[in-house]
Amino acid sequence: MATRPDALAAAEAVAAAQARVKFARLGWVRLLGILDATSGRASGHEFGPAIRFTVPLFNRNQGGIARAEAELERAVRNQQTVAYQIILDVQRSYLQYRQTCAELEVLRTKVRPEVEAAIRRAQAAYQEGNVTIFIVLETTRQLLDNLLREAVLTADLRRFWAELERSVGKRLAAPPAYPDRPAPAGSKTDPPPFPGPGPAPNGDRNPADERRTR
Fold first, then answer.
1. Domain regions of the chain by residue span
2. What's the pLDDT score for residue 173?
3. Three-point CA angle 153, 154, 158, nearest 5°
4. Cα(167)–Cα(85) distance, integer angstroms
């Protein structure tokens, strides 16, 4: 917490309140030195020193002391509130970062390979004429959605890491390289090439084949 500006400000406020309490407890002391040279026996202008001070019989600055102690208690409680807020900010930012890391890991290692495998199966089935083109388009759309979600999570990782650094109050070591880590083996960041048309399913002729035969 020594690096957070609000924590440092709260600590300085407590130190100032403690100094005011010490001063209030000695505020009743009144010491006045007097040097009078307007009277005397020899020439009428002799120095006559004197001292004037307050005797604390009924007033020892109880009101000022009570006010200073109240301000000190408020400063201490505000410092505790700031400390709890810092702890909450750090824990929340860290948990958000860890959760986003886990989600991105699942997306890259489990979801994307399955989507790419489904695209390959759909392309092979389309080339053999077992499915329509809409199946290939649908699986390709799922891959595009996967890539979009990965980009959003990468941006969230950077944002949560920046929030964590703000919560701590200083720059931290480099985070795990989730945003820049290469994709798993065999995966691609771009959609697979669109397959050439094959025989239409159910024994029907493909329109593209008809155009080629004409």
1. 5-27+58-200
2. 81
3. 115
4. 9
